[in-house]
């Protein structure tokens, strides 16, 4: 009896140790990102980066999305090159929705080449776009996944960027207005995916999203500041390619076609590190943010 009990205890111990080892061997998403090889990253070209510097020293870096909204993105770039954002301000901070900002003077003459009434660049043909299905159901699109490295929905013929946390879009009035780029917003909370295919997406925040998260919430309707003295001044918003080489931000995003991203996606969908009692075995599109890092 004693020998049987000892054998049973050894068997239980071996089972427990094997499970502990299995849990210990399963890297977390953060660990996968931290140990990602250089081949898993791509450098964002300076022509696709906007650096936003606030009067209080805050700094945000935005990757532009010309593949999805080329006319709107070109307008934003022209405004940046005309220094239209310098002296502008954040005028709206709605909790768990968006932060919105505008140029210095919305009535000033438009820069050369500026398109006053852009087309409704809310989606584009899927043909020619590298699309990686997420592999899990999505309530807002027949299929969700990564399109050219961006969180996106698709119906098999068209594809559109998803309004996830950190997404930068163009403010507009009621349709048929599409917004011209003088007012931008960033999603600062739970992804308002009902906005998908309803506003032009021009970019995503890669660096400095925590700055937006720390701003005082507006107390007016829709989170607008009720007093101009509450506005948060913008010092400058500049295309990285127009900055001196030494002052340019250098940012990389993870390649969504890499084995590292595949492992990261699996880990996001089924956490098996010791903290978790049960793995979800599923993940929402906006809960798989494409990792980014600044290289100094």
From TrEMBL:
Q: What is its EC number?
A: 5.2.1.8
Q: Is the keyword Isomerase assigned to this protein? A: yes
Task: Please name the GO terms that the record assigns under molecular function.
Answer: peptidyl-prolyl cis-trans isomerase activity
Query: Keywords of this protein's UniProt record, alphabetized?
Result: Isomerase, Rotamase, Signal
What the entry lists under InterPro entries is as follows: Cyclophilin-like_dom_sf, Cyclophilin-type_PPIase_dom, E_coli_cyclophilin_A-like
Q: Residues in domain PPIase cyclophilin-type?
A: 58-240
Question: Record keywords: Isomerase included?
Answer: yes
The residues forming the signal peptide are 1-24
Class in the EC hierarchy, top level: isomerase
PANTHER family (UniProt xref):
PEPTIDYL-PROLYL CIS-TRANS ISOMERASE CYP38, CHLOROPLASTIC
**What is the designated name of this protein?**
peptidylprolyl isomerase
**Species assigned in the record:** Acetobacter nitrogenifigens DSM 23921 = NBRC 105050
């Amino acid at each position: 009896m004693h020998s049987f009990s000892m054998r049973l205890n050894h068997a239980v111990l071996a089972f427990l140790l094997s499970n502990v080892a299995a849990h210990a061997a399963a890297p977390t998403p953060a660990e996968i990102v931290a140990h990602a090889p250089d081949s898993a990253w791509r450098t964002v070209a300076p022509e696709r980066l906007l650096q936003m510097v606030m009067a209080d020293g805050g700094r945000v870096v935005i990757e532009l999305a010309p593949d999805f909204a080329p006319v709107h993105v070109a307008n934003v770039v022209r405004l940046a090159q005309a220094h239209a954002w310098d002296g502008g301000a954040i005028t709206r901070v709605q909790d768990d929705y968006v932060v919105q900002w505008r140029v210095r003077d919305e009535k000033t003459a438009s820069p050369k080449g500026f398109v006053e009434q852009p087309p409704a660049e809310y989606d584009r043909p899927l043909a020619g776009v590298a699309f990686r299905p997420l592999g899990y159901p999505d309530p807002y699109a027949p299929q969700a996944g990564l399109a050219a490295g961006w969180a996106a929905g698709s119906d098999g013929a068209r594809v559109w960027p998803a309004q996830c946390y950190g997404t930068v879009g163009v403010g507009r009035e009621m349709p048929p207005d599409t917004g011209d780029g003088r007012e931008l917003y960033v999603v600062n909370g739970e992804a308002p995916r009902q906005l998908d295919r309803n506003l032009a997406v021009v970019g995503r925040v890669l660096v400095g999203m925590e700055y937006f998260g720390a701003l005082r919430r507006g107390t007016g309707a829709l989170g607008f500041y009720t007093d101009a003295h509450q506005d948060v001044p913008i010092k400058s918003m500049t295309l990285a390619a127009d900055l001196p080489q030494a002052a340019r931000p250098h940012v990389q995003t993870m390649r969504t076609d890499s084995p590292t991203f595949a492992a990261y996606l699996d880990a996001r969908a089924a956490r098996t590190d010791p903290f978790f009692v049960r793995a979800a075995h599923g993940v929402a599109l906006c809960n798989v943010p494409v990792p980014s890092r600044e290289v100094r």
